[in-house]
Design a protein that fits this description.
The chain has 14 helices and 19 strands. It has 497 residues and is of the alpha+beta class. The longest helix is centred in the middle third of the chain and has 21 residues. InterPro entries: DNA/RNA_pol_sf, SulA_CellDiv_inhibitor, UmuC.
Length: 497
């Protein structure tokens, strides 16, 4: 028996923008586009929808009611995002397709037992999509049409029992049949507010009064008429193989093999306007052993010479032993890279960003990616939320760094409690103990009071001090709470250069 799962992304365009700019999360905003001389709302965030703002509204009308409403230009390229999400779903099913402009449909026949049944399967997919920042509704039924209807209009349990789509559809509005708007309006004018009011009418009567579309949609919902699922084709993996007539045992031979593999890989990347972010070279030896070498880049790259230099740094770690008979180059992570971006590698025009990217790639090959970090500012006063990490060297900051504030070069992920000795309340400490070592304070500046962001969480305020010990080390300390109200606690939160 066939079973299908429909996934409806209720605010796909808005979710995509909020994922790109995390500061928009929990904010009411809309996406707009010009239409016939007016600026129309094309999509809304969940918070804007909760205010009653709907797609198709004139932006000026919405801002007349909500003057602080944020709005951004709509990007109509969400088809690519849906296709990417469909490819992501291949970890749950062998067949997944795009459904319109805001949904996916999965053929889950024979798959759900791997997740302890349909309930576990349903919860796993929905939970992971919601954790990824998408607001979704989903349903499982015997037919794609029934799953689509329940996901968007259902008010009961979203996992429809086998053979139960007819009973579920009776309580749903005529819009659940995906009819043309004029036909749906006509049914409502006649008093048909639920599909159960006309589903059991004789087919001849339905065809004569409403045309063939109603019968066609009812048949697809009940499963008496077939409905075609067009699966999204997953991209072909970036894998190049180079077998050797004679086993390779020398470094020049390995270099030649890497160059030939990179040449073929970069040609394909050029044709598809992509660049790799991660590459893996697997060397299969004649004795059955394997040698693995990996490189990573801070931005998409398809420059053959630059990639070869990264591999060249690791050739001395390859042990050919009796010889290597097969080289396999894999590119598991690729991203878009237009021709204009490729010009960054032109040595006559490359700028500082290009030089920094190459330097980071070489450092990463030598000391590892875990030793390199980049941070961008966030619009928060609370120190733990004032920065965020990013792996993209080309990502631009959405807000400027607060240059008027003195902040440590290294901010701890979480404050560490310390023991201090202070002369009187509201004074900086004379000494503090951190990691078992006593630091005598010779200079101090402060306090700087930082209150918690009350709309996010409640708690004690902090009084921060910049202190320097007798060895020249500079630290960012704070006292949590007031003397008298609570027993004050001291913490270290960062290190200055």
């Amino acid at each position: 028996m066939k079973r299908y799962m429909a996934v409806w992304f209720r605010h796909l365009a808005a979710d995509r923008l909020a994922l790109r700019y995390p500061g928009l999360r929990q904010q009411p905003f809309v996406l707009v586009a010009p239409e016939r001389g007016r600026v129309m709302i094309r999509a809304v965030s969940r918070e804007a929808g909760a205010l009653g703002i709907l797609p198709g509204t004139v932006l000026a009308d919405a801002r007349a009611v909500y003057p602080d409403l944020l709005f951004y230009d709509d990007d109509p390229s969400q088809d690519k995002l849906l296709a990417s999400l469909a490819v992501w779903c291949y970890r749950f099913t062998p067949v997944a397709g795009v459904d319109g402009t805001d949904g996916l449909v999965l053929d889950i026949s024979g798959c759900t037992h791997l997740w302890d049944g349909e309930e576990g399967y349903f919860e796993t997919i929905v939970t992971r999509l919601q954790a990824g920042g998408y607001h979704v509704r989903a349903a499982i039924a015997d037919t794609m049409a029934a799953a689509w209807a329940v996901a968007r209009y259902g008010t009961t349990h979203p996992v429809v029992a086998p053979g139960g789509q007819a009973a579920v559809m009776r309580d749903l509005p005529p819009e659940a049949l995906q009819l043309e708007p004029l036909l749906t309006e006509r049914l409502r004018k006649l008093g048909f507010t639920q599909t159960g009011m006309f589903m059991d009418m004789p087919p001849a009567v339905l065809r004569r009064r409403f045309g063939p579309q109603v019968l066609d949609r009812i048949g697809k919902v009940l499963g008496t008429l077939p409905e075609l699922l067009v699966p999204v084709q997953p991209p072909e993996p970036y894998v190049e193989r180079l077998p050797c007539l004679d086993p390779i045992r020398t470094a020049p031979g390995i270099e030649l093999a890497i160059r030939k593999l990179l040449e073929t890989t970069c040609q394909r990347l050029q044709q598809e306007e992509k660049g790799l972010r991660k590459a893996r070279l697997v060397c299969y030896r004649t004795d059955g052993g394997q040698q693995l070498v990996e490189i990573g880049t801070n931005s998409p790259v398809r420059n053959q010479e630059h990639l070869f230099r990264l591999f060249e740094l690791k050739i001395d770690t390859i042990e050919p032993d009796l010889g290597i008979e097969l080289f396999v180059l894999e590119a598991p992570v690729v991203e878009g890279l237009t021709t204009q971006q490729e010009r960054l590698w032109d040595l006559d025009t490359c700028g500082k960003k290009d030089a920094v990217t190459k330097l980071l790639d070489r450092l990463e090959s030598r000391i590892g990616a875990a030793a390199i970090h980049r941070y961008l500012p966030e619009e928060h006063h609370w120190p733990e939320r004032s920065v965020r990490s990013t792996n993209d060297v080309q990502e631009a900051a959405t807000t400027p760094w607060p240059e008027h504030l003195v902040r440590p070069v290294s901010l701890l992920g979480a404050p560490v409690r310390i023991e201090v000795s202070a002369p009187i309340p509201d004074y900086p400490p004379m000494l503090f103990i951190h990691k078992g070592k006593i630091h005598k304070v010779v200079r101090a500046d402060g306090p700087e009071r930082i209150e918690r962001e009350w709309w996010i969480e409640k708690g004690l305020q902090r009084d921060y001090y910049q202190v320097e010990d007798e060895e020249g080390g500079r630290y960012w300390l704070f006292r949590s709470g007031h003397y008298g109200e609570h027993k004050p606690e001291w913490f270290i939160h960062g290190y200055f250069a």
